[in-house]
Specification:
9 helices, 214 residues, mainly alpha
Amino acid sequence: MLDLLPLAGYAAAMSVTPGPNNVMLTASGVNFGYRRSLPHMLGIGLGCGVQTFLVAVGLGTLFARLPWLHTALQWGGAAYLVYLAIRVARAGEIGRTEGARPLTLIEGAAFQFVNPKAWVMAITTVALFLPAGGPAWTAGLAISAVLMLVNFPCISVWTLFGVALSRLLSDARYRRAFNGAMALLLVATAVLGLLDSPAPGADTALAPSTTRPL
């Protein structure tokens, strides 16, 4: 039997805390508004939900058996964060705003699969809340559904924060400075992720005290 209230609280805490997804959504809210950022937001929830389901049915054991897979995810995620940082920075350049666009649903979902912190969230959620006994796939679907439902309003806060900031950043110079700061923050996240990110298959990744932001 799922403990829905603790699960929802844990999902909310993991979803609303600062992290790469929320940094990108803040920048998207500033540059594209809430409605155009919706596919990106839905993609994050979808990607995290699919991740969590896959971990529930046993995919998480691969990280323990194949340590190189975690390394590949670290470097792939870092490279993608740098790419996204470039996109964020270019969104504020004169003459490039019209060609810039927010992430699509597929891009938002795909990013979760190269985001080591999202993998840690999926593994810890399953470790803490997957009931013992019974079909793992049914419980995994339920956990994933709760995660997706809770995730959306939490990350909406960051997109709306960006929308509010956009009114203060109407000056092109300030917007370029903001986008540059967000880009640098994403690059810093990528570097820190490579320097200090335990393997999701390790015991520390499964401990209840692990509360890495999404």
